[in-house]
């Protein structure tokens, strides 16, 4: 494609108003050399432009280069490796061994990544199979047998299938190591080495990692050939450009985001706010949801005509809309004087994008507030943004039901004070006088306040607490350097709930080279249980004992039984207190 960057799409992508897009260039997926089936899928998903990591990674990956990428969740890294991989695949293959293998640390990620492959590759008929422990092996065997194109697997289970001869790597053109630092932290280093030994030497290898400790560097040097290096969040140039606005973030799961947004808006009471979403689809969905919750919201995205956009902007300026829900592309060059709040409904895909977004407020000495709703896994990206901008983003607690009640009472009180100061209340005197024949004056006032409160601040219908999601990621809360799993596991207790725990016996110990992180890795990699839920780990010469919550003991046992630890199968059962050891 040779089109100029600013003209890539329909004319609807022209900047709004006459304000030039400040230092933001528009790129299009069409410029990256992707095939039409993929472009169609991206457009159907409402992706308007590639994220920075996609812009940088897709062309060299299409050329077959190896790649070493430093990027956290939230940057769009999954599409950055999935799209080129799908692009190079022959469409609608029959049977056959996989052409690509993606290794991921957890089963949650295996599912997410294979869903992403499905979404992008459905018009190519791509057959994608997630394989992880804890899932019936029969289904995986049948799927592998009938032929797949892409396997997305946790290392332990992948190795199991390789050993059984059910996963054959001879036809691999590409291997992706996703979240490599987490895989190493979880003790999968040896499994990964063993897997790579089975892959053809002539292959493309892609490694993504949120951090680049020396172990990752070593792994890259050993397995990648002249890789292209990409780092998202390296640019220090944006520091100092960032406007001085109050910046805070809330950690919340996706399911609770609309309710959290509503609550934050209620507490903040913005004059006008812009809410940024990643895709057109999300803009439409959120606009509808927020309108349903009583916020006057308008959608703005690249799929709308100039006339529609002008109408939306008119309503925002006139104050008949409070909330503009927009994609980055559509909001480019937008300058609305009334804007007081910028909300990132998702963490932006790069620090630069964050800076551009929050630059919509805090202009020309105006005060601004920037709020980010981050999913637990996106916490690291927030840290990257803080580092690059040199500004703090405070993690706040989502307002509770009690906070909301207090806030609503304050609003009612404010409305009454205003009325006392400004309104002509005489016509109502007769009501008060008549009622005070029968009731106390205070009681009359209270009843009037109650009625006023119900009108000025109706309670929202979701009066449930929104859970503050815990920050996720195995490295969180640990020192970056020297945080060896062995130390931290000493006398630890499961941190969740503090309920009953049981000891699980694993028939491999120090002599087999087992370390606490190997056990944590095997459990979290092959089950849905998080490292923080695992309690103390005791490693003896010939066996280990792992303390886990009673309720998940069976899942842990079956997960450990179906995987390998240090490449070996172990006896795993509930500990019976020393009997038979
Ligand atoms: P990831 O960093 O790969 O976990 O992706 C984060 C999220 O961004 C996922 O929900 C993707 O669906 C979404 N996403 C990835 N690329 C784009 C894009 N170019 N435009 C809009 N959304 C995207």
Automatic annotation (TrEMBL):
<dbReference type="GO" id="GO:0003723">
    <property type="term" value="F:RNA binding"/>
</dbReference>
<keyword id="KW-0346">Stress response</keyword>
<feature type="domain" description="Helicase C-terminal">
    <location>
        <begin position="260"/>
        <end position="405"/>
    </location>
</feature>
<dbReference type="InterPro" id="IPR011545">
    <property type="entry name" value="DEAD/DEAH_box_helicase_dom"/>
</dbReference>
<feature type="domain" description="Helicase ATP-binding">
    <location>
        <begin position="58"/>
        <end position="230"/>
    </location>
</feature>
<dbReference type="InterPro" id="IPR044742">
    <property type="entry name" value="DEAD/DEAH_RhlB"/>
</dbReference>
<keyword id="KW-0378">Hydrolase</keyword>
<comment type="similarity">
    <text>Belongs to the DEAD box helicase family.</text>
</comment>
<dbReference type="GO" id="GO:0003724">
    <property type="term" value="F:RNA helicase activity"/>
</dbReference>
<dbReference type="InterPro" id="IPR014014">
    <property type="entry name" value="RNA_helicase_DEAD_Q_motif"/>
</dbReference>
<dbReference type="Pfam" id="PF03880">
    <property type="entry name" value="DbpA"/>
</dbReference>
<dbReference type="GO" id="GO:0005829">
    <property type="term" value="C:cytosol"/>
</dbReference>
<dbReference type="InterPro" id="IPR014001">
    <property type="entry name" value="Helicase_ATP-bd"/>
</dbReference>
<dbReference type="Pfam" id="PF25399">
    <property type="entry name" value="DeaD_dimer"/>
</dbReference>
<feature type="domain" description="DEAD-box RNA helicase Q">
    <location>
        <begin position="27"/>
        <end position="55"/>
    </location>
</feature>
<dbReference type="InterPro" id="IPR012677">
    <property type="entry name" value="Nucleotide-bd_a/b_plait_sf"/>
</dbReference>
<dbReference type="GO" id="GO:0016887">
    <property type="term" value="F:ATP hydrolysis activity"/>
</dbReference>
<feature type="short sequence motif" description="Q motif">
    <location>
        <begin position="27"/>
        <end position="55"/>
    </location>
</feature>
<keyword id="KW-0067">ATP-binding</keyword>
<protein>
    <recommendedName>
        <fullName>RNA helicase</fullName>
        <ecNumber>3.6.4.13</ecNumber>
    </recommendedName>
</protein>
<dbReference type="Pfam" id="PF00270">
    <property type="entry name" value="DEAD"/>
</dbReference>
<dbReference type="InterPro" id="IPR001650">
    <property type="entry name" value="Helicase_C-like"/>
</dbReference>
<keyword id="KW-0963">Cytoplasm</keyword>
<dbReference type="InterPro" id="IPR000629">
    <property type="entry name" value="RNA-helicase_DEAD-box_CS"/>
</dbReference>
<dbReference type="GO" id="GO:0005524">
    <property type="term" value="F:ATP binding"/>
</dbReference>
<dbReference type="InterPro" id="IPR050079">
    <property type="entry name" value="DEAD_box_RNA_helicase"/>
</dbReference>
<dbReference type="Pfam" id="PF00271">
    <property type="entry name" value="Helicase_C"/>
</dbReference>
<dbReference type="InterPro" id="IPR027417">
    <property type="entry name" value="P-loop_NTPase"/>
</dbReference>
<keyword id="KW-0547">Nucleotide-binding</keyword>
<feature type="region of interest" description="Disordered">
    <location>
        <begin position="455"/>
        <end position="502"/>
    </location>
</feature>
<feature type="compositionally biased region" description="Basic and acidic residues">
    <location>
        <begin position="473"/>
        <end position="490"/>
    </location>
</feature>
<dbReference type="InterPro" id="IPR057325">
    <property type="entry name" value="DeaD_dimer"/>
</dbReference>
<keyword id="KW-0347">Helicase</keyword>
<dbReference type="InterPro" id="IPR005580">
    <property type="entry name" value="DbpA/CsdA_RNA-bd_dom"/>
</dbReference>
């Amino acid at each position: 494609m040779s089109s100029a960057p600013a003209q890539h799409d329909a004319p609807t992508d022209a900047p709004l108003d006459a304000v030039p897009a400040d230092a933001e260039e528009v790129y299009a997926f069409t410029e990256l050399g992707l095939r039409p089936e993929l472009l169609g899928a991206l457009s159907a998903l409402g992706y308007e432009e590639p994220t920075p990591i996609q812009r940088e990674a897709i062309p060299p990956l299409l050329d077959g280069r190896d790649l070493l990428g430093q990027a956290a969740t939230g940057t769009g890294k999954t599409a950055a490796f999935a799209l080129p991989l799908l692009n190079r695949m022959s469409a609608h293959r029959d049977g056959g061994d996989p052409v690509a293998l993606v290794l991921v640390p957890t089963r949650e990620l295996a599912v997410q990544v294979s869903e992403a492959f499905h979404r992008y590759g459905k018009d190519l008929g791509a057959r994608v199979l997630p394989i992880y422990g804890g899932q019936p092996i029969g289904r995986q065997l049948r799927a592998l047998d009938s032929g797949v194109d892409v396997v997305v697997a946790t290392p332990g289970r992948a190795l199991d299938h390789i050993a059984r001869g059910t996963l054959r790597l001879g036809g691999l053109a590409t291997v992706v190591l996703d979240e490599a630092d987490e895989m190493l932290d979880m003790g999968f280093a040896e499994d990964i080495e063993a897997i790579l030994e089975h892959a053809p030497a002539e292959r493309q290898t892609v490694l993504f990692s949120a951090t680049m400790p020396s172990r990752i560097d070593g792994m890259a040097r050993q397995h990648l050939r002249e890789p292209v290096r990409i780092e998202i969040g390296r640019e220090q140039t944006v520091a100092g450009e960032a406007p001085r606005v109050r910046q805070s973030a809330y950690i919340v799961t996706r399911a609770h985001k609309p309710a959290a947004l509503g609550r934050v808006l209620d507490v903040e009471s913005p004059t006008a706010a812009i809410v940024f979403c990643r895709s057109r689809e999300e803009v439409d969905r959120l606009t509808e949801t927020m309108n349903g919750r009583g916020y006057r919201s308008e959608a703005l995205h690249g799929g709308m005509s100039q006339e529609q956009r002008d109408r939306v902007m008119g309503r925002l300026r006139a104050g008949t809309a409070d909330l503009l829900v927009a994609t980055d592309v559509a909001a480019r060059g937008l300058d609305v004087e009334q804007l007081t709040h910028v909300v990132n409904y998702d963490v932006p895909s790069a620090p630069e994008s964050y800076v551009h977004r929050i630059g919509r407020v805090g202009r020309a000495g105006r005060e601004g507030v920037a709020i980010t709703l981050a999913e637990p896994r996106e916490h690291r990206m927030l840290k990257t943004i803080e580092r690059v901008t040199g500004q703090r983003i405070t993690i706040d607690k989502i307002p509770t039901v009690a906070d909301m009640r207090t806030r609503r009472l304050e609003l009612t009180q404010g409305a009454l004070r205003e009325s006392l100061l400004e309104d002509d209340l005489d016509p109502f005197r007769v009501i008060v006088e008549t009622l005070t024949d029968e009731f106390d004056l205070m009681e009359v006032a209270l009843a009037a306040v109650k009625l006023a409160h119900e009108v000025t601040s109706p309670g929202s219908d979701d009066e449930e607490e929104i859970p503050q999601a815990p920050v996720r990621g195995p490295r969180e809360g640990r020192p970056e350097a020297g945080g060896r799993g062995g130390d931290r596991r000493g006398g630890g207790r499961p941190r969740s709930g503090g309920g009953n725990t049981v000891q699980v016996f694993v028939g491999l110990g120090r002599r087999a080279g087992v370390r606490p992180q190997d056990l944590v890795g095997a459990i979290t990699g092959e089950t849905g249980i998080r490292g923080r839920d695992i309690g103390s780990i005791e490693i003896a010469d010939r066996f280990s004992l792992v303390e886990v919550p009673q309720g998940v003991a069976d899942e842990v046992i079956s997960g450990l039984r179906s995987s390998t630890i240090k490449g070996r199968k172990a006896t795993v059962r509930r500990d019976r207190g020393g009997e038979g050891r």
